[in-house]
Structures are given as C-alpha cells and as structure tokens.
Specification:
heterodimer, A: mainly alpha, 11 helices, B: 315 residues, 14 helices
C-alpha cells in the first residue's frame, strides 16, 4: 500500500531490532510478575532513572553506554533489591491494590526527582556510531539497534542459564510455583522476592544502556516505554519469558509499521489498541497460563 | 439520610460560601477553586474505586470527555455554555458506560482493570492530540466573555461558589448512594464479588451503574476546569496527571468515605503549596512529596485521616 517493498522491509527489520530491546524491558516486568505476582507501575520510572544513570556515566565519566551497561546492571540490581526489600514489601502487606498504589507512588517519586535534578529538557549523547548503518541485502539497518538486538539475546540466554542451572534460579522458580512450600523447605521468600526484583531492575539498566545511543532521555521518557512494556507483557502472557521476547519483536514491528503509515503521533495508537484488545479478549496472552 | 448526616455537608458548604467574603487574595481563591475541581474529580473516582473497589488509573478519560465536549460545543457550534456543560457530563457518563461495559464484561479486575483504563485514557489522549476538532496539539481556547450567561464570572469568588456548590451536590449524592441499596450492593461487590453474586447481586449491573455515575461526576470536574481556565489541550484533558490526582485524593483522605476525596484534595494541595514555598522554583519537588505521602498512607493504616486522628485521641 503506497510504499515500495524495500521501505516496508527496512521498517519491519528496524522495528524488529528495536522490539528486541522492548522485549528486554518487558522481560524485567514479566519476571517480577511471574514470581511476585505484582504489576510494577514503577518499571517505567526505573527505566528513566537507568537512562539518566547511563547519560551521567557518559557525560561525567566519559563511559561508553555499552561499557557502562555492566556496572549499571550491578548498581540497579542493588537498587531494585533495596526498593523491594525496604519499600514495596513492607508497605504493601501482600495486598494487590496496595502494591499498585505503592509502585505508583514510587514512579511519581522517581520521575519527579529526575525532573528536579535534570529539569524537563530532553537530552541525548553524542556517539560516533549513533547514526551508523549496516547494509543487509537491499536494506540499511541501524548499528546501535543491531547491537541492542544481539545484547538482548545474550541477556536472555544468561537469564535462562541463571534460572535453570543455579541454586538461586531454582529457589526463584520454587517461590514462583509455591510460595508457602518454598518457605517451608527453608527458602527465604522475602530475599528471593528482592533478588527477583533486582534482576528485573538490572535488565532495565542494560536496556537503558542499549537504548541511549538512539533515544532521547527526558523525565517522562519511561512512560512511553512502560505502556509498550505492559502491552508486550500482556500480549506475551504475564509471567512468560518467551512471551516477553516474542511479544517485544511483534510490538516493535507493529510500532514501526504503524508509524510509517499513520505518522509518529498517531503511530502509538496501534500499540494501545492491541493492548486493549488483548486485555479484553484474551487477558492470558499468547503464552500465559493463568488469568 | 438524617439531619445529623447532612449537617457536616452543610457546614462544608457554608465555609466555602463564606470564603470569598473573607478572602480577597486571588492567589488563595485560585488555590481553592483548583483544589475543589480536583476534589470533584476525586469524588467521581471515589464512587467506583472507594465504594466499588475498582481502581481506575484512567479517570482522565472522563475528565477529558467532559472538558472537551463542553469546550468544543461552545467554540465550534456556539452552544450555550450551561447546555454544553451538561452535554459534557452526559458524554463522560457515556464514555464511562462504554469502558465499563467492555472491561467488566471481560471480567477484568484489580491490576488488569487499572491497566485497561489507563490504556483507554492514553488512546483518547493520542486521538485528541491528532484530531482537528479538538484543535490538535495547539489546543482549544474558549473565548473570554465574563458574563454569568456564558458560565464565566468576572469575580473568582463567584466561581468558588459554583465549584463549592457542585462539590456539595456530589457530597450529597455520595451520601445518598452510601445509604441506598445500590451503595450496599457496591460495597458487597468490593468486599467479595463471588459472595455478593451468590446472594443475588447482579455484580455487572452494579459496577456499570457505579462507573457511569463516577464518570459523570469526574466529567463535571472536566467541564468546570474548561470554564475556569478557558483553555484545553490533550495533555491537560486526558493526561495521566488528572488520573493520578483523582485517585490520590480519596486514597489519602479515605477511600469509600463521603468526605475522603475533599479532605484528601485539601491535604495534598495544602502540602504541595507548602513544599513549593519551601523548595522555591525547583520543578517536581511538590510531586515527590505526593508520592511519599501516598506510600506512607498505604504503609500506615488506618488509612483514613479521621481514623488516624481518632487513634491518636484514644492513645
């Protein structure tokens, strides 16, 4: 319809690459949901904080975001651990509405702290490779997005190894399946909850480092990503890791193509409509087991 | 409803009726009108969220519907301002009914209901930002013609009376609901939907009535906002800020109580003004305080502030 096939292919492929990083953002969200059974409204704000952290690492310490990704992941793991252990856990007392409200409160605090610190200007960093492209058949692919795609696959593999081959991963899976039973065999549930939340936040830090070369950062940037992440998680099925990755790819392509046809401002509509439709028609998503 | 129930509401009405006579400062009057607009939006949220236990994160959808319909009818079609205001409320109620029908029919509750309402509000925001009739990204301006016939008043004090009157009406409506069969059924659905249904309560019908009424009240707040500020854009009308305000006030003041939303709005905006006067021009600091208050209120029950004061007195 109107566009030559190379343009469509290029938009779809670049959407696919961006979608992988969306998938990484969604991975953290779905992991937290799968184990703690909570919807973390602060996810977007935490992503914003991570993007600012990567921004500061570049402007104040001259670190390339790709280099900063690892130390940031460690830092945000600790941050996520502390937030779950000290704020969300005690404040919510296990009630669904309370968790919604506490994570909403957290997101308001984080977002506006960023606003107070960095003001509302949109910022970006200058990188020599930000605009580089790689030829792939008849299409040109953005280099930072290609890196993002590869790194996401790597993180997903590492996460898979962590979950299947380590004692911590086993404990996480045990808590996700049967919390009381896990507690009875001596697993510290509060600790595992916080570790899981920390892993989710660490995924965000890596995603932030991968996004920064090609996206602007502003105090509200997380809002845009978090609705996309919620859509992906709902589409893929709450708690499903494979669902999050595949959902990310699908949403990336949808966003890219609807942006091409409807323009940037209306382009987001496609995502929201998918979100609403999936929630209304099949809230368990493509790969989810439970409602 | 007995005289004893109505007395506090009359007291509230009298205080706000007297305020313009006692206070001349435009800054204070502005603060009071804005707080009352938020309180009205929050009273709408309270019917569905407080009494019905259905936490909406997208009341901006209703606020925006009320505001935009009222403004568009006046500006584009020259409709009388009061008629436009009434149409705005009706449109908000309709939007509430449709969203409620779709969400509740699909059995969405808890976090899923919160997410779907948020998404609906965002869709409306993106559409309003792109559409022509709403003025797009430039927004829509209602012509300034300060005349009571245009629902515009030269004196801010007069507007305070109007806003106070509407909030009083909403207080009476909430009290009437609380004492009604529908109110009892709504609370039953909140406490245990399955048990309520087993007793013969039609949960879907009850929730639909609640969301429609809730949307109408929040829509009235939107229409009032449009009349007072005479300017709207998509971020104001459908932005998440108003969804959050509408939810925060009842949670802080006491969800599911008659006075909760008003009390919460006054506390939050009082604290916000105090923070601004301390922190000066640093943006966002007052909202950081909002977030902290929210977490503290959830962390330390009893949730209602009157309850907290009562607990103090008993000590």
């Amino acid at each position: 319809m109107g566009f030559p096939p190379e343009i469509l292919l290029e938009a779809a492929l670049n959407g696919l690459l961006t979608g992988a990083v969306y998938g990484l953002v969604a991975l953290g969200l779905t992991l937290v949901y799968g184990v703690l059974h909570i919807i973390n409204f602060a996810h977007g704000a935490l992503l914003t904080a991570a993007m600012y952290a990567a921004y500061v690492a570049r402007t104040a310490f001259g670190l390339d975001p790709y280099v900063a990704a690892l130390p940031l992941a460690g830092l945000f793991f600790l941050l996520g651990y502390a937030v779950q252990r000290l704020v969300i856990g005690p404040a919510s007392r296990g009630r669904d509405e309370n968790i919604l409200l506490v994570t909403l409160g957290l997101s308001i605090i984080i977002e506006n702290t960023m606003l107070a610190l960095f003001r509302s200007d949109t910022r970006s960093i200058d990188l020599p490779y930000a605009m580089e492209v790689v030829a792939f058949g008849p299409t040109l692919l953005s280099w930072p997005r290609l890196v993002g795609f590869g790194a996401t696959i790597l993180v997903a593999l590492l996460l898979f190894l962590l979950m299947s081959a380590t004692a911590t991963g086993k404990a996480i899976r045990a808590v996700a399946k049967e919390r009381t039973g896990a507690a009875l065999v001596g697993i510290d549930v509060a600790h595992i909850y916080a570790v899981t939340f920390g892993i989710g936040t660490a995924c965000l830090a890596i995603a932030a480092a991968l996004l920064l070369p090609s996206f602007y950062v502003s105090p509200r940037v997380g809002n845009a990503f978090v609705l996309v992440a919620f859509t992906i998680v709902v589409l893929g099925g709450m708690g499903s890791v494979i669902g999050a990755l595949l959902g990310g790819l699908i949403i990336g392509v949808v966003e890219s193509l609807s942006g091409l046809y409807l323009g940037d401002s209306l382009g987001q509509i496609g995502i929201f409509l998918i979100f609403i439709l999936v929630l209304l028609v099949r809230p368990t998503g493509l790969f989810g087991a439970r409602a | 409803m007995t005289a004893r129930d109505i007395l506090p509401i009359l007291g509230f009405a009298l205080v706000f009726a007297a305020a313009p006579l006692l206070v001349a400062s435009n800054v204070v009057l502005n603060f009071l009108v804005f707080t009352l607009i938020i309180a009205l939006a929050a009273q709408g949220w309270n019917l569905l969220g407080g009494y019905g236990g259905q936490y909406s994160f997208g009341h901006a959808a209703f606020f925006g519907a009320g505001a935009y319909v009222s403004a568009i009818l006046q500006v584009r079609l020259g409709v009388n301002a009061y008629a436009a205001f009434a149409c705005g409320i009706a449109k908000a109620a309709l939007v509430g009914f449709v969203i409620g029908f779709l969400a509740f029919r699909s059995g969405l509750r808890g976090s899923y209901f919160a997410l779907v309402t948020l998404a609906f509000a965002e869709v409306l925001r993106v559409l309003a930002n792109a559409a022509e009739v709403t003025g797009g990204a430039a927004g829509i301006l209602i012509r300034l013609e300060a005349d009571p016939r245009n629902f515009q008043f030269a004196e801010r004090g007069t507007f305070l009376w109007v806003a106070g009157g509407l909030v009083t009406l909403a207080l009476l409506a909430t009290l009437a609901l609380e004492r009604s069969r529908l109110g009892a059924q709504l609370v039953a659905v909140r406490e245990n939907e399955a048990a309520a249904q087993a007793l013969g309560v039609d949960a879907l019908a009850v929730k639909l009535r609640a969301i429609t009424l809730s949307a109408a009240i929040t829509g009235a707040a939107g229409g009032l906002y449009a009349q007072y500020f005479l300017y709207l854009d998509a971020q104001i009308a459908y932005g998440t800020w108003i969804s959050v305000e509408a939810l925060l006030a009842p949670i802080v003041g006491g969800a599911g109580t008659v006075f909760g939303p008003v009390l919460g709005a006054i506390i939050l905006h009082g604290v916000s003004e105090a923070t601004k006067s301390v922190a000066g021009s640093i943006p966002g600091v007052d909202l950081v305080v909002f977030g902290i208050v929210l977490i503290l209120v959830v962390r330390f029950p009893p949730r209602e502030i009157p309850g907290l004061l009562g607990a103090w007195r008993r000590r």
